[in-house]
Design a protein that fits this description.
Largest sheet: 6 strands, mixed
Bound molecules: glucose-6-phosphate
Helix content: 40-55%
Strand content: 5-15%
Distance between the termini: 52 Å
Radius of gyration: 25 Å
Low-confidence stretches: none
Number of helices: 22
Strand order of the largest sheet: 1-2-13-12-10-11
Structural class: alpha/beta
């Protein structure tokens, strides 16, 4: 059942047109003017809730912009869509599925309905089994085939079954078991597996094969290679697989076919999208690394942000505000990209994680009804941890010809207090947001005695927008809040753009073509190639220069 009422095209909405009018009035106003005209702007355009502080005052907005964006959200049915998501309606219309990741972090005892069935207890049963297993691996009760305890865990998965686990492991490394090694194999490039396994003892290594479908070619190829590596190292006995492989999947049949005992399979459900699954059983490696209690704290952080998103008025709702600001730059200022700049080394994989979350969700060209959109949808999302980016691409942010809205993320307390490192780090974060917003004028440069020939080169025009997300400390709960913040910001944008943020049909075509080409690469004689002339030539050249088969 689709929950989509027919709506007028987005660009016909009076609220959209009002924003267009308003944009023409304020597009040339400088953030300097906004700040000069309102000494309390920094406090007025900031909101603290669900454990995070969002300063959005360095955006090119006024109170009126905000009111118009909120009116747009209402006109697009954001409130109803949020309720539909939380009720487990099939808001992923093209795949006929609910998108109920918010259920994964519901506290025990709260009913969660999907198709009229309460799945809450099944969900907590999986969490309990995960906790039991993670505990046994962590305390050494779970032994490898030769009786040794597990010291290495390798998660094999790709896309949504990799990016969340690897990001969360890196982000929460401070809380992880330091006497264990955690690695992540995703790429079908054999180098990924070879480098991950090369210095590990198979007797002490556990593989978690994470795949919702258990048919993904990259994951299954890596899993088969891992099985060969294990069996070979453990004396050729296939029985060793049972002690060194567990699965996370929705497909018990394929798990059993692979040779993994389904007693060692941790399930989830089709209403959990891959890129929304790091808090499901897909997070098993995270749980082994940080322990069940910390994992629960992470889920509680997600849940706090979920509740905030569901209940806070949009004008004080962190994910809604961030999503609407993204629409403002994307559709009215014509910004093509958006950057996330975490000033915390532990968040080094956060931009890569968000790339999938944002771009796979909102990189869509048709509406829910299948009509081509005549407006821009999801921006290109990218980023790097600060301060490294400052010494590379920030030049373009400050003086390039493109407008790149930025999210800065930082914490008041560091997990590694070393001299004045943290003050220096945070000083840089604050300084960058200030420099981007206010810039440096010709008058200021001349007053400083800048030589004439360099004045133009040194001017920073400023007026470059940013959000600052300030947390107290990077904890498992904070990470949950942060991820949920972006999940719901992406959702808000998708609702405004009237697209399905939960499907990903665009990735199919390449997979289909790759299958065909694999067969052609395997042919012993000269294959009858019927691609375009470029692809044909590339295949022929590859066949000529690869090692003899
Ligand atoms: C995410 C996508 C995609 C998916 C991978 C892995 O939302 O659906 O990235 O997670 O293709 O799929 P499997 O978990 O089925 O192997």
């Amino acid at each position: 059942m689709t929950v989509e009422p027919k709506r007028p095209p987005l660009t016909d909405l009076p609220e959209w047109k009002a924003l267009g009018e308003h944009f023409r009035k304020i597009r040339d106003v400088h953030l300097r003017e906004f700040f000069a005209g309102d000494p309390k702007r920094g406090e007025r355009f900031a909101v603290e809730d669900a454990g995070l502080y969002l300063d959005y005052s360095k955006n090119r907005i006024t109170g009126e912009t905000l009111a118009l964006l909120v009116a747009l959200a209402e006109a697009c049915g954001l409130s109803q869509r949020i309720e539909a998501m939380f009720r487990g309606e099939k808001i992923n219309t093209t795949e006929g599925r609910a998108a109920l990741h918010v259920a994964l972090r519901m506290p025990r005892g709260r009913p969660v309905f999907v198709d009229g069935q309460d799945v809450g207890s099944a969900m907590h049963e999986v969490l309990d089994r995960m906790a039991d297993f993670a505990g046994r691996v962590r305390d050494g009760a779970w032994k490898g085939y030769t009786g040794k305890r597990i010291r290495n865990v390798i998660n094999i998965g790709i896309g949504g079954s990799d990016l969340g686990p690897v990001m969360a492991y890196e982000a929460l490394r401070h809380y992880s078991r330091r006497d264990m090694t955690f690695r992540f194999v995703s790429n079908i490039d054999g180098t990924d597996f070879a480098e991950a396994a090369r210095d590990l003892n198979a007797e002490e290594t556990l593989f978690i094969v994470s795949s919702k479908t258990f048919t993904t070619v990259e994951t299954m190829t890596n899993a088969r290679t891992a099985r060969r590596w294990t069996v070979q190292a453990l004396g050729g006995d296939e029985r060793s697989v049972a002690r060194h492989f567990v699965a996370v999947s929705t497909n018990a049949g394929e798990v059993a076919k692979f040779g993994i005992d389904t007693a060692h399979m941790f399930g989830f459900w089709d209403w959990v999208g891959g890129r929304y699954s790091m808090d499901s059983a897909i997070g098993l490696s995270t749980m082994i690394a940080i322990g069940p209690e910390n994992f629960r704290a992470m889920l509680d952080g997600f849940h706090a942000m979920d509740e905030h998103f569901r209940t806070a008025p949009f004008a004080r709702n962190l994910p809604a505000l961030m999503g609407l600001l993204s629409v403002w730059y994307n559709n009215f200022f014509g910004a093509q990209t958006s950057a996330v700049l975490p000033y915390d080394r532990y968040l080094k994989r956060f931009p890569a994680y968000l790339q999938q979350l944002t771009m796979e969700s909102n990189g869509k060209h048709v509406t829910l009804e299948g009509a081509y959109v005549d407006y821009e949808t999801g921006p290109v999302f990218w980023g790097e941890p600060g301060t490294n980016g400052q010494h590379s691409f920030y030049q373009l942010l400050h003086q390039g010809t493109k407008l790149v809205p930025c999210d800065f993320i930082g914490f008041c307390r560091t997990l590694n207090p070393l001299g004045n490192h943290h003050d220096l780090l945070m000083a840089n974060l604050f300084a960058q947001t200030e420099a981007l917003a206010l810039g440096r004028t010709e008058d200021e440069l001349r007053a400083e005695g800048t030589p004439d020939r360099l004045v133009a080169h040194r001017i920073c025009k400023g007026n470059r927008p940013s959000n600052t997300i300030l947390g107290e400390e990077l904890t498992p709960g904070t990470l949950g809040r942060l991820v949920a913040l972006y999940e719901h910001s992406v959702f808000t944008q998708g609702v405004v753009w009237q697209i399905d943020s939960f499907d990903q049909w665009g990735v199919e075509l390449g997979k289909v073509l790759a299958k065909k080409i694999v067969a052609e690469l395997g042919e012993t004689g000269e294959p009858d190639l019927r691609h375009d002339s470029s692809t044909n030539a590339l295949i022929r050249r590859y066949r000529r220069f690869r090692p003899p088969q």
